Sequence to fold (195 residues):
Amino acid sequence: MTTPKTLMLMRHPETVANVEGLWTGRGNTPFTETGIRQIDLLAEEIARFAPDALFSSPLERALTVAQRASEALAMQVRIDDRFTELDFGTAEGLTIEEAHARGITFDFRAEDQPVAPGGESRRDIMERTAAAVDEALDHGDRVVVVTHGGVFRSALVHTLRLPMSAIWAFHIRNGQIAELSLQDGWARLEEFRSV
Fold:
């Protein structure tokens, strides 16, 4: 038997773009008042988890939480670009209504076509997330990844060995946390909560 591992996945706090319904993949957006409160709550969750390694997306809305936790834990944040949100291409920064008004169509069902023109496909985000999660788990028995909704979903599908279509089966709120136990090629969702 291999040594059991525990993975904590965390979605960043609430941002203005989340509240306004803007497709924000690679861009930055300020926190709402709720999001500002969630920063400390999420950092405290990480500190209580006492990870061996702490990973983050490079985007400010995730990295802010990881850096706050790293200060409390006196440990390094490992920034990995593969934990960045899905690239929404030409829909970046738009609401769904604005995107439709510009003739931009979304394809959330296809595995290999971009979700929006010029962006990434579901397979793109699944493959980069899977590789990043597997590598992160080589850095200790208790690992935290602070990331975004699309990567969070992809990580759940990968670790739980679900079909790719299950990426849309999870509602990932801002401040959502999942804890998974992994051993001998199997994973189990132990906790699923939000702050």
